Amino acid sequence: MRIGTRDFPIGEKTYVMGILNVTPDSFSDGGKYSGTLAALRQAEKMVGEGADLIDIGGESTRPGYAAVPAEEEISRVVPVIRELKKRFNIPLSVDTQKSSVAKEALFAGADMVNDIWGLRRDAEMAALVADTGAAVCIMHNRERAEYGGLKHDGPGSSSLEPASQKSDRESDGFMAEVKADLRESLAIAKRHGIKREKILLDPGVGFGKTYEQNLMVINHLDDIAALGYPVLLGVSRKSVIGLTLELPVGEREEGTIAANVVGAMKGCSFVRVHDVEKNVRALKMWDAIRKAD
Known about the structure:
The chain is α/β, with parallel strands linked by helices. 44% of the residues lie in helices and 13% in strands. The chain has helices at 36-48, 70-87, 99-108, 125-132, 163-192, 211-219, 221-225, 239-245, 253-265, 276-290, and strands spanning 2-3, 6-7, 15-21, 53-57, 92-95, 112-115, 135-139, 199-202, 232-233, 270-273. Helix 1 links the parallel strand 3 and strand 4 (53-57). Helix 2 (70-87) packs parallel to helix 3 (99-108). It is globular and about 55 Å long. Residues 150-160 have low confidence and may be disordered.
């Protein structure tokens, strides 16, 4: 995988992407880093803690988020990207679903586009990525958590199928649809000439999935890795952790680390996190254990 001027040998280690939200309404840290100076301080902290790349977002994509005009999103992310490029030698990603924002961010120095709609929402996104030679993170997403492969019998069902077999059948159907959606995005990338070594896949935890489906996709990340591209897991502080542990956003660090280590064990090459230092340490430990044989 090549992002900007840096090569990321897949399998050598688990790489950590630090999240830098320059938005006033992010679900986790809204408003904390919305000024350029605050953003630069947070970026410096993440670099010092071992981040391998930084993802800058100017529009919250939390459930029920309010869309931000492209001009406002550009005004949030571009100054930060320019200053980061001046000060740090680290690849930068722009988290946006708008090609107009991605274009300005790439011209300002961003190296990758992190598209939550996997090139399927904005018709100009794939061509922009191909023309600029940028890397792209293709995320799985749907408008609603509706999957034809998941057909529950419902309360009072007389089905005699063992619960374990039913669970396996549902997970197989769900994952088949997730992979089909990702293959559709990959086909778009191929048609526009995006190079294979520039593509990263994200299973989209928290996007277009129920609580159970989010757990399922984490448990079956090896199926996503089997598509043959590096995989990024973005589960940091998300509701799947909060619902499981019954904890507020600010107390989900251990759950995030646990999920990321599981992801690494199942073949993820990148994780996207708010708390860089502890995730770097945990994944460094896993990488050492993995290489012991």
